[in-house]
Design goal:
The protein is an alpha+beta fold. It contains eight helices and 20 strands.
């Protein structure tokens, strides 16, 4: 990744430049890769609090009396029974069951829902929702350009945020959302995140982003964190990344996420027939965790090989783990492969790895 002058700038772009961030083109947006040390940023989230700009994400609203039913048809989850103020992790799939994107859906009111899509897929998700909602009393409104998204993640996040809001954060459970004022600006406050730590994601008007960021960043111990730290944090937490663990050629069942597919919900939904068939057929591969015995990190695209050197899988994400102190990776292994004696081909050298259950890290 490198900086592209034609890439979109988030509302916090000038703040990142002032902080000396290494800016790169990510999904068509100029985003901070790191500010100084990505390891220090990672550790700040694990031990204190890190501050992230996630304004590249897509916010797509569905509203109207048929919005819940439209989402039930468009997505693999059973969304319409979800109470107001709750959120759910789900996916949008093609007719063949391939994953078009993984999403978080928030119910903001009886007839108002917010779908948060990955930046690279926001257009695909919006177009699919428009098409799939056509037969329902539901309006689709892409408000991505109007919002900034700031995440405060880490064990200190609640205590820090309570200094800026009267919202009842103590009663806000994981995967829930409320409206409140934070540092003097209106915000949707969600207890969600992509780091494996407790934390909050704050949806605010783009014009309020700088004010909110500067207020939170002024707190002692709050460390601005970039994409590199976010990637190692989510990798340790075993969270999939679209384009790595999830693609249009990947099914939820291969990724070990069949639980999000609600085949028993009322009515039809896009991809149901293919997904129902896949649920009854053992997948040809499975997603696993790998821990390297040596110091060389497996990287995306590296082959996993058997003790005899035969290819038997592919690494989807890999990096040195700042928390564990050893290289880790997620990889797809062919079904039936014996897990003992595996290695990863790291530039021509077979580096031994151990297969472990995901996640690598789970907060206490």
């Amino acid at each position: 990744m490198s900086a592209d002058p034609t890439a979109k700038k988030t509302p916090l772009h000038d703040v990142h430049e002032d902080l000396g961030a290494n800016l790169v083109d990510f999904a068509g947006h100029l985003m901070p890769l790191r500010y100084a040390s990505e390891t220090a940023e990672h550790q700040a989230v694990r031990t204190g609090a890190g501050l992230f700009d996630l304004s590249h994400m897509g916010e797509i609203f569905l509203s109207g009396p048929g919005a819940g039913a439209a989402l039930d048809f468009a997505l693999v989850g059973n969304l319409s029974p979800m109470p107001v103020g709750k959120a759910r992790y789900t996916m949008i799939c093609g007719q063949d069951g391939g994953v078009l994107d993984d999403l978080i859906v928030y119910r903001l009111a009886d007839e108002t829902w917010m779908v948060v899509a990955n930046a690279a897929n926001a257009d695909v998700v919006r177009e699919a929702l428009v098409e799939r909602a056509a037969g329902f009393e539901a309006a689709v409104d892409d408000r991505s350009g109007s919002y900034a998204l700031i995440a405060l993640q880490g064990p200190r996040s609640q205590g820090i945020l309570e200094g800026f809001t009267d919202a009842p954060l103590g009663g806000l459970k994981y995967y829930a959302i409320l409206a409140g004022r934070v540092a003097g600006v209106d915000a949707l406050v969600a207890r969600t995140g992509y780091t494996g730590e407790d934390g909050f994601e704050l949806f605010v008007d783009a014009s309020d982003a700088v004010r909110l960021w500067k207020a939170l960043a002024a707190v002692e111990g709050v460390v601005p964190a970039g994409l590199s730290a976010r990637d190692t944090l989510r990798l340790e937490a075993g969270m999939p990344l679209y384009g790595n663990e999830l693609t249009a050629e990947t099914t939820p069942f291969e990724a070990g996420l069949g639980r999000v597919v609600k085949l028993d919900k009322p009515g039809d939904f896009v991809g149901k027939s293919a997904l129902a068939a896949q649920a009854q057929t053992p997948p040809g591969r499975r997603l696993v965790g790998l821990v390297a015995r040596g110091r060389r990190a497996p990287r995306k695209g590296y082959q996993v090989v058997t003790s005899g050197g035969a290819p038997c899988g592919i690494v989807t994400s890999g990096a040195p783990s700042p928390t564990l102190g050893t290289p880790i990776a997620m990889a797809y292994l062919d079904s039936g492969v014996e897990e003992a004696g595996l290695a990863v081909d790291v530039r021509g050298r077979h580096e031994p790895v151990d297969v472990v259950a995901l996640p690598f890290y789970k907060r206490s």
